[in-house]
Amino acid sequence: MTSYISSLKVHGDIKPDNVLMTNQGRPQLGDFGSASSTLSTTLNFTQTHSFGFTVRFAAPEIMGGENPFTKESDVYALGMTIFNVMTGQLPFADKSEVLVIVEVLSARRQPLQPNFGHVLQKDEAKSKMWELLKRCFAYEPGDRPKATQVKNGLMEVEMINSA
């Protein structure tokens, strides 16, 4: 997935429902209804969500209608997807979609730090994972890591956890 985000493409709807696993256990992105090339800005794709995006995984700039989907908004959504997969919980699970939008845009709210206990055993791995996710959740797109940095961070967490 990080390879796709690093390419010249923007997916626009990264979320767990759009991650498919290969027979080799590798994640692949599906549902390219929102995808576009960063080389072309003339294509328009129809969104099927009531808000035009998947609220719990959408970056603040998408929620605010300020920007089109970008690699940076895909990294935000990737972070939320990792949060969901690692915890088994939806981001902001205790809030309505409207409240999520209000809190993210007005209070720059991020999900609360989870325990990661069922996936990560070592405290250092849990801490590194949370630091990586917080960077993915950065309010300003330019403050988010690149997809390759996310991949490297995940590999570091895995290495720490398995040592």
Automatic annotation (TrEMBL):
<comment type="similarity">
    <text>Belongs to the protein kinase superfamily. STE Ser/Thr protein kinase family. MAP kinase kinase kinase subfamily.</text>
</comment>
<protein>
    <submittedName>
        <fullName>Kinase-like protein</fullName>
    </submittedName>
</protein>
<keyword id="KW-0418">Kinase</keyword>
<keyword id="KW-0067">ATP-binding</keyword>
<keyword id="KW-0547">Nucleotide-binding</keyword>
<feature type="domain" description="Protein kinase">
    <location>
        <begin position="1"/>
        <end position="155"/>
    </location>
</feature>
<dbReference type="GO" id="GO:0004674">
    <property type="term" value="F:protein serine/threonine kinase activity"/>
</dbReference>
<dbReference type="InterPro" id="IPR000719">
    <property type="entry name" value="Prot_kinase_dom"/>
</dbReference>
<keyword id="KW-0808">Transferase</keyword>
<dbReference type="InterPro" id="IPR011009">
    <property type="entry name" value="Kinase-like_dom_sf"/>
</dbReference>
<dbReference type="GO" id="GO:0005524">
    <property type="term" value="F:ATP binding"/>
</dbReference>
<dbReference type="Pfam" id="PF00069">
    <property type="entry name" value="Pkinase"/>
</dbReference>
<keyword id="KW-0723">Serine/threonine-protein kinase</keyword>
